[in-house]
Amino acid sequence: MLKVFLVEDEIVVRESIRQMIPWMKFGFELCGEAGDGEMALPLIQRQKPDLVITDIRMPFMDGLELSRMVKKDLPETKIVIISGYHDFEYAKAAISIGVEQYLLKPVSRQEFLGVLKKIRDCYDKENAQRIYYEEFEKEMRQYEQHSRRDFFEKLVSGKYSLNEIYEQAAQQQIDIMASAYNIVLFQISSKEQQRLWTEYFSQTELEIWERIKSYIKEQEEYLIFRNHVFGYAVVVKGTPENIESLTEECVQYLKGYMEEGNVTWFLAVGEPVERLSMLSKSYRSAVQVFTLRYTRPNRCVTYQQLEEQRAGDRDVNLKEIDAAVMDTEVVHTFLGNGLLEDTESFVDDYFSMIGENALQSRMFRQYVVLNIHFCTMSFVTKLGYDNEMIDSGQEIEQMGSTLAQARKAVINLLRQGIKLRDESSKSRNRTMMGRALEFIQENYTDPEMSLNRAASVANVSANHFSALFSQEMGQNFIEYLTELRMKKAKELLRCTSMRSGQIALEIGYKDSHYFSFLFKKTQGCTPSDYRNQIGQRNGVCHG
After folding, report:
1. Could you tell me the fold of the domain covering 2-107?
2. 448 CB burial (10 A radius; 0-12, 13-18, 19+)
3. Which fold has domain 444-538?
4. What is the mean pLDDT of the chain?
5. Residue 80 region by backbone torsions, left for phi larger than 0, else alpha for psi between -120 and 50, else beta
6. Residue 310 confidence (pLDDT)
7. Measuring CA to CA, how many Å separate 436 from each of 24, 488, 492?
8. Cα separations (Å) of 6 from 14, 98, 249, 405?
9. In the predicted model, is pLDDT for residue 105 greater than 50?
10. DSSP code of residue 320
11. What is the pTM for the complete model shown?
């Protein structure tokens, strides 16, 4: 309903207007009325009506002055002025204020309804346009988000030249310049996610992520990126003198946000470097630390601490064994979320946390191996496999004959479990992706096509679908959708005489300017330039 406020000093006229129109029937609600502008203004400011209908000549404050003040405070409010015949020129001057319409007294019901219908249509059009531009901005943010993630992967890969990095940073409007850098990786997951791998973000995690992102964006020394499906990365920028203090400050802020939520978290701090070209080294060092997240939840570990631990000899006896490490949930968490390439690092850290002295006992080594063996069988059984799928390779009692044999046996068991998990996941993912791709192919020209719709068809969360799509297709969803639409656009440019605006609508873009922007960004030229080039080379196959 559109709210209407009526201002008229003649009671008879005001009553006539009120009774003349069945307001509710035509989508309007008469929310208030007043006898002059002075009385009307505070009521209008409080009610915030969509439409003000006012006489032009009134005592204390006339309609023109009221209109000026309403437009100043409520620029979206429409105004209709009612004037007498002799005020015609006076009323026309009101157009400069932004008045929508004026009506001459006496006002007929048909004329009044015509004006109201025009205003209603105007509001409908403006609302539709507003909704569209909100979607447009959302799509642009999605596009930028994926581009930003791709930039981070290039930044830390060590495979691109500095010129390429600087050029892409400029395109993304990312200030990457500094004389020293460091990488902080962190992970947030709900308590439930630790039990078995999951495809969903918890609401708590999303809230923490949004708070962290808002904070980081305000700090010029930090750049935040999504690293992978459940991971995040912060690039710390500074000088050789302050890079360590800036890193520590970043860590303390992140810990503070994550400790407030009921989540499991881990922070991995890399090794500081003094060149942008060495940032991949800092990233690799942080990734090494990141493998400890399975055995040391709710902690921050630096690369320096990891190196010191590896260099030092740990004198641990049975009484000093961390009971939390022996908890089967630690192994289940790794089986559910770990990567195949993380297995050796996990086992080394797992054994390190147990303690070298404790593992000198053959009986205890065999207990550790047996414990992990049963954990792995339980895990694969939950996946739907027979526990005979786990091949021990040798008798259990022989697995722990030496520390090296125990290590090898545990690595073998965990790798088998992870491979079966990935096999199960791939089977489900192939079916899921098949449904999603078929849906996208059939509906890519639909303006309402989105990541959320495709994820809904695949019956998974949008976040998981986004990560899986990138992994399976080698490009993100927006890039794939854009590629399909641009391919169709080029076909229409080659083989029809349709204008760019028509083509934009045909392939799913409501805004021709946005279509032209994407076409030039992805194809390197404007739609009209493309058509001209094709026409000059081959002749255009209109028809």
Report:
1. Rossmann fold (3.40.50)
2. exposed
3. Arc Repressor Mutant, subunit A (1.10.10)
4. 81
5. beta
6. 62
7. 44, 19, 25
8. 8, 18, 59, 89
9. yes
10. G
11. 0.50
